[in-house]
Design goal:
The chain folds into two domains: 145 residues, Nucleotidyltransferase, domain 5 (2-Layer Sandwich); 183 residues, Nucleotidyltransferase, domain 5 (2-Layer Sandwich). It is built from 16 helices and 14 strands. The strands form two sheets. The protein has an eight-stranded mixed β-sheet, with helices on both faces. Strands 11-10-9-12-14-13 form a six-stranded mixed β-sheet, with helices on both faces. Strand 3 and strand 4 form a beta hairpin. Helix 1 crosses helix 3, helix 10 packs across helix 11 and helix 15 packs antiparallel against helix 16. The chain is globular. The two termini are 23 Å apart. Bound molecules: adenosine monophosphate (AMP). The site of adenosine monophosphate has 12 residues, from helix 10 and helix 12. Pfam families: Acetate_kinase.
């Protein structure tokens, strides 16, 4: 039998998330996280979903190499080690592929060099992704390893959506343009929404709202992204857990000139201590909803600002697409927070959009419609699955058995 497992690795600056998937039946064989790499208090949590067994190891893990070796040992204990003949490939999440990488790509030295060249536009993410790639390549040099880029799905955006209105020569010199992120999620969810509607992706226009701790919206026409809310970096667009999203760029000059803040301080402010957290001290939507129930005005205002921005993007992408078949909510907030969905769509009957209170209140892990049967435009909740998307793209690239059918059916 040809190899049928794919290991998905998501290497962050101090963490490695991983999932080992069986491509024959989409089952998760192992799921885990190594966190606080480089600190004394590192931890690996390894779960085998089939048995429900979870193992935890605490203690210093010095670097990504040690982290991946620990992951390999954990997999070995379950008979799922990296040297198993059933392992077909490793799929790596890479945050920034610039304009260069429009597709998942088999990794070789030239690809590594190109990902490295993109470090100036993704200084936090690409170096960590590269460390994961290099370490995995050293452990299994003979195994196909594939880079799946967060930006790739958005490379179909027309120039009118992708360019900022600044001096074109300066923009070109420094590669300043809108790249967009969360691409594997937008790709997966837009396709799964078409399947939910019983249609082909080519035949539907969808607005995808990926609302997690990071949040982004996209306009997808016939399976191709035509606009998305994140830009050069994941800071632009919606209000997020700790990121401001859109703001007048002059706020930055003002904070420096008048507030005396340094560039790094403003960077930290906008990325780490703004968004819902900056507005009310909490970035978890569950906590914000609980506080609103208790009559907390600060939490209410944070929620209202979050919703106002979201509604503006729904309206904007409606205009970008012209005809919309579905608005779909995904990720932690989008999948779980019924009040967010209700408030985002309220009063938009003129656009053919409505939410059915009973359907919206249902909690489920399945893709589902929350709009009334009579609605002109579907409103849906589709749980995202970035690991499955990375695994299927990886498997398809290496010519895995039945890979195309798996992608279509997702
Ligand atoms: P993600 O980045 O997709 O993992 O989403 C994480 C965020 O989802 C958390 O910070 C919470 O704000 C939100 N979230 C998770 N579960 C719920 C829930 N039951 N209700 C509201 N928000 C939730």
């Amino acid at each position: 039998m040809s190899p049928f497992r794919v290991l998905v690795l998501n290497s962050g600056s101090s963490s490695v998330k991983y999932q080992l998937l069986d491509m024959r039946d989409r089952s998760r064989l192992a799921v885990g996280l190594v966190e606080r790499i480089g600190e004394q208090t590192s931890r690996i949590t390894h779960t085998v979903p089939a048995t429900g067994e979870t193992r935890e190891q605490n203690g210093p893990i010095a670097d990504h190499e040690t982290a991946l070796k620990t992951v390999a040992e954990e997999l070995d204990r379950d008979g799922l080690g990296l040297d198993s003949p059933d392992l077909a490939a490793i799929g790596h999440r890479v945050v920034h592929g610039g304009m260069f990488f429009t597709e998942p790509t088999l990794i070789d030295d030239a690809v590594i060099t190109e990902i490295e060249r993109l470090v100036p536009v993704a200084p936090l993410h690409n170096p960590a992704n590269l460390t994961g790639i290099r370490t995995a390549m050293a452990l299994r040099p003979d195994l196909p390893q594939v880079a799946v880029f967060d930006t790739a799905f958005h490379t179909t955006m027309p120039e009118s959506a992708a360019r900022y209105a600044i001096d074109a020569r300066i923009a070109d010199r420094y590669r300043v343009r809108r790249y967009g992120f969360h691409g594997t999620s937008h790709a997966y969810v837009s396709r799964a929404t078409a399947a939910l509607l019983g249609k082909r992706p080519e035949d539907v226009n969808v607005i995808v709202l990926h609302l997690g701790n990071g949040a982004s919206a996209s306009a997808v026409r016939g399976g191709r992204c035509v606009d998305t809310s994140m830009g050069l970096t994941p800071l632009e667009g919606l209000v997020m857990g700790t990121r401001s999203g859109d703001l007048d760029p002059a706020v930055i000059f003002h904070l420096q000139r008048v507030g005396g803040m340094s560039m790094d301080e403003v960077d930290t402010l906008l990325n780490k201590t703004s968004g819902l957290f900056g507005l009310c001290g909490d970035n978890d939507m569950r906590e914000i909803l609980r506080r609103i129930d208790e009559g907390d005005e600060e939490a209410r205002l944070a929620f209202d600002i979050y919703i106002h921005r979201l509604r503006k993007y729904i309206g904007a992408y409606y205009a970008v697409l012209g005809r919309v078949d579905a608005v779909v909510f995904t990720a932690g907030v989008g999948e779980n927070a019924a009040p967010v969905r209700q408030a985002a769509i309220a009063g938009l009957e003129g656009l053919g959009l409505a939410v059915d209170g009973d359907l919206n209140a249902v909690r489920s892990d399945e893709p589902r419609l929350v709009s009334p049967a009579s609605a002109r435009v579907a409103v849906a909740v589709v749980p995202t699955d970035e690991e499955w998307e990375i695994a299927t793209q990886t498997y398809a690239l290496i010519g895995g058995e039945g890979a195309d059918e798996k992608r279509k059916g997702s």
